[in-house]
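Bumping with the actual sequence this time:
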Amino acid sequence: MTLFHLAGVRKGGRYGTAVNMYSVAVLTLPAALPDTSVSVGKLVYRLRADPLPPGAGKPIYLPSGRRPRMSQCSVDPAFAEAAVTDKVVRMTAEAKAGWRLHGHHMIGWIGERRPYEEIVRLAETMTAILGEFPTPPRMFTLG
């Protein structure tokens, strides 16, 4: 597990330069999973970009009218349908977090520069989310 703070910068444009601070946890997975992301919308709104995996297309907003607004995107829709359950979305929303699967890593973030104890709680939530995913042999192929 790796924990750190990160500044997300959107330069120039109509609203000037925006700097958004994030606290980040990265978990190393035993195998690669399909690139997928789920996030609370306000975490990335000011950056004017979604945390999309390359090649994943447009985000899907989960379900309309949901508070907080949540988005999901995946290169493998069948994996996303099996893994991103209502419980996983609820756990992500309750943590006020976002997460992304990228190869052998799960990257999670929360807004602002937080004490490391809060980033450790984020990592624990990410581990619980991974525990909700379907077992690999039945649902998807590990890379």
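The tokens above came from a reply further down the thread. The CA atoms of residues 106 and 124 lie 12 Å apart.
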